């Protein structure tokens, strides 16, 4: 086998030394060119320490002297094989950008296969498969994929949150010890971090070195950043198992979900660019223009009336909507959220002639029709659970998990329950012209169990299989991952869905943060961003229509508002925003995302630059009051420094209330300047009231 394996992609390289018994990661970071052999000498051996030099093992294990969390934890029934000593037994290339390493421990009778890819876009992908080669069962406690950080790593950035406040950043110093976050939601979770980044001191949007990972799985999991006194920090990702959840019979194996990782020498935007480019390269990535959506939830809630919905359909068409989605309340016994969940039949009392009249009306107006479902959940007050109480997932022992929003979880590990859910969704899609499913999941999966044993892992895979089989049967149907908002946003579910709902909160101020950090990993075409009502349903905060539209522009744009009652000014401004989205969605959904590093936290400047840098669209937003009287000059990153650009404000119009008492000289007529000038000197920004914004277009001349 080759002693040195070098994988290259984007601006990055991942180099593994296979010359010894266990593989060592020599380098993960910027591409260093084509060294025939890296001139790296061994580390010293300090006093009172392991008697061999420190090595950055790809698979850390105690048998090599590693004193942190081992990559593999497990044991035989009698406790044997508790500490494996895996050594390299095979290695082979997986095309130009991949490599596979096999490690074995004959005494423990286990084999580990590590699959590594560094794609052309610079995305590092790792997963491991552990096989039981023995003649007794092997209880697997954890299986972790780790990647090392590099020189100067000093800070950790991750995200946290809650319902209606997902994906908010938190930053702390990197210190010795184990930094651990566990997610025990049975789904990704509202407090889940889309990524974990370790970077050099003070790294920002456009500066500093960053090493970041994402774990592509929707169930329980753990992320660690671990620094021992011996060397640099490791970032680890693993599925989090309940006791006894994964026991491998002789010959059985377990594969981890993918860990995704990106290195950037130019701040967080470099990580974002890698993730966006890789996601857009997938064959399954949405290719058609992302249609303008109207979702009925905040327009009618549970009050389904065919007359009102036909009026809403007509109003949606006039505004320019392209997809009309009927939300919760259409199925049997569903007059509120306490009953009916799981009874996936159109309610004959509310819809005596089925959904046909509404679907036909929507489609006759040139719009797709979508439908809300929540296939993994049930109300105990439902026909399906009255008939099959044993279909409730839980710990057994004569009790069910605590209720959450009047809901329990249907046990999809039970083949009969899975078949029921699949057959009902398959029938709905076969009998109706439905182009889109808003697939919700409104509770944490606490105490998931099947037949008295823990089943979170199998429940997650069963939900995946449900989506996969429906997509196979109905390949033209798109699916949105909604989970009481943003509680299931990960690359595992996005292998089988077409977008995510970032949050149940349509408050534009909250959405500024939620969307910025969701789109740190996900390109905007995968993130639902809607214009909500004037006064937000979840926060009761009131915002101008222009601010709500500016906020929703950089995503998969939609509306969640009763647009039947718009006055003339609102109708005109919302229609203008819809037209702007349609005009610029090709740029928004293909260009490079950029985020300026502004000194004043009261303002933000972010946008998207075309891949050939011929044009760009930015939003300058005031999120709070500033200490300063004026914003001053703001630089525009990402442009071609040698080209001239014409900059103009294109939204809101001059009649909208964003203007200061005196405006800046380049508004409204625009100004032409070089990309270098716009980046290094910038343009003076107008004084904006808090919670207002403007859209600025730049076109190369």
List its traits.
701 residues, alpha+beta, 11 helices, 39 strands, 30% strand
Counting DSSP H or I runs of 4 or more residues, the number of helices is 11
Distance between the termini: 54 Å
Number of strands: 39
Strand content: 25-35%
Average the pLDDT over all residues and give the rounded result: 95
Shape annotation? globular
Helix content: 10-25%
Question: Which structural class is indicated by helix and strand composition?
Answer: alpha+beta
Main sheet, how many strands, which sense, barrel?
10 strands, antiparallel
Return residue spans where pLDDT drops below 50 for at least 5 consecutive residues: none
- Supply Rg: 27 Å
Give structural notes.
- With 701 residues, this protein is of the alpha+beta class.
- It is 18% helix and 30% strand.
- Strands 5, 6, 7, 8, 10, 11, 13, 14, 18 and 19 form a 10-stranded antiparallel sheet that branches. An 8-stranded parallel beta barrel has the order 20-21-22-25-28-29-30-31, surrounded by 4 helices.
- A hairpin with a 2-residue loop joins strand 26 and strand 27 (453-454).
- Helix 3 runs parallel beside helix 4.
- It is globular and about 80 Å long.
- It starts with a strand and ends with a strand.
């Amino acid at each position: 086998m080759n002693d040195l394996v070098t994988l290259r992609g984007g601006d990055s390289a991942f180099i593994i030394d296979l010359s010894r018994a266990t593989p060592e990661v020599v380098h993960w970071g910027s591409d260093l060119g084509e060294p025939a052999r890296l001139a790296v000498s061994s580390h010293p051996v300090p006093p009172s320490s392991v008697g061999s030099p420190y090595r950055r093992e790809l698979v850390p294990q105690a048998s090599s002297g590693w004193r942190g969390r081992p990559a593999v934890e497990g044991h035989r029934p009698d406790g044997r094989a508790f500490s494996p000593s895996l050594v390299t037994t095979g290695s082979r290339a997986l095309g130009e950008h991949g490599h596979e390493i096999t490690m074995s421990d004959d005494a423990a009778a286990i084999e580990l296969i590590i699959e590594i890819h560094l794609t052309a876009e610079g995305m590092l992908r790792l997963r491991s498969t552990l096989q039981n080669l023995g003649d007794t069962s092997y209880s697997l406690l954890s299986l972790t994929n780790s990647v090392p950080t590099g020189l100067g790593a000093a800070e950790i950035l991750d995200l946290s949150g809650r319902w209606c406040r997902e994906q908010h950043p938190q930053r702390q110093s990197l210190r010795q010890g184990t930094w651990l976050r566990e997610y025990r939601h049975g789904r990704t979770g509202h407090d889940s971090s889309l990524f974990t980044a370790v970077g050099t001191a003070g790294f920002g949007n456009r500066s500093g070195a960053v090493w970041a990972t994402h774990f592509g799985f929707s169930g329980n999991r753990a992320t660690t950043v671990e620094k021992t006194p011996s060397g640099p920090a490791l970032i680890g990702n693993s599925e989090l198992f309940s006791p006894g959840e994964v026991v491998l019979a002789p010959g059985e194996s377990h594969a981890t979900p993918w860990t995704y990782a990106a290195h950037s020498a130019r701040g967080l935007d470099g990580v974002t660019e890698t993730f966006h480019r890789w996601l857009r390269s997938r064959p399954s990535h949405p290719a058609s223009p992302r249609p303008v959506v109207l979702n009925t939830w905040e327009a009618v809630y549970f009050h389904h009336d065919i007359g009102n919905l036909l009026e809403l359909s007509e109003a949606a068409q006039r505004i320019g909507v392209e997809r009309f989605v009927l939300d919760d309340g259409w199925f049997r016994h569903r007059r509120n959220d306490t009953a009916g969940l799981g009874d996936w039949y159109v309610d004959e009392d509310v819809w005596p002639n089925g959904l046909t009249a509404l679907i036909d009306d929507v489609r006759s107006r040139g719009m797709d029709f979508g439908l809300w479902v929540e296939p993994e959940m049930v109300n105990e007050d439902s026909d399906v659970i009255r008939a099959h109480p044993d279909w409730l997932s839980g710990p057994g022992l004569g009790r069910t998990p605590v209720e959450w929003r009047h809901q329990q979880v249907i046990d999809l590990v039970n083949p009969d329950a899975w078949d029921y859910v699949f057959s009902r969704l398959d029938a709905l899609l076969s009998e109706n012209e439905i182009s889109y499913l808003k697939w919700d999941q409104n509770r944490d999966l606490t105490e998931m169990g099947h037949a008295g044993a823990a089943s979170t892992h199998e429940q997650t895979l069963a939900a995946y299989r449900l989506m996969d089989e429906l997509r196979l049967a109905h390949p033209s149907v798109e699916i949105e991952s909604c989970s009481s908002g943003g509680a299931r946003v990960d690359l595992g579910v996005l292998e089988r869905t077409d977008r995510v709902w970032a949050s149940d909160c349509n408050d534009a101020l909250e959405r500024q943060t939620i969307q910025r950090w969701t789109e740190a990993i996900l390109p905007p075409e995968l993130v639902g961003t809607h214009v909500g009502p004037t006064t937000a349903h979840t926060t009761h905060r009131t915002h101008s229509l222009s601010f709500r539209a500016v906020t929703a522009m950089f995503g998969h744009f939609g509306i969640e508002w009763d647009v039947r009652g718009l006055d003339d000014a609102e109708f005109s401004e919302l229609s203008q925003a819809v037209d702007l989205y349609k005009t610029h969605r090709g740029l928004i959904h293909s260009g490079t995302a950029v985020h300026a590093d502004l000194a004043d936290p009261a303002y933000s400047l972010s946008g998207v630059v075309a891949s050939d840098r011929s044009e760009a669209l930015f939003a300058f937003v005031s999120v709070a009051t500033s200490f300063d009287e004026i914003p001053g000059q703001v630089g525009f990153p990402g442009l071609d420094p040698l080209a001239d650009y014409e900059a103009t404000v294109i939204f809101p119009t001059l009649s909208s209330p964003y203007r200061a008492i005196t405006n800046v000289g380049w508004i409204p007529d625009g100004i032409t300047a070089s990309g270098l000038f716009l980046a290094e000197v910038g343009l003076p920004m107008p004084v904006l009231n808090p919670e207002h914004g403007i859209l600025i277009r730049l076109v190369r001349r």
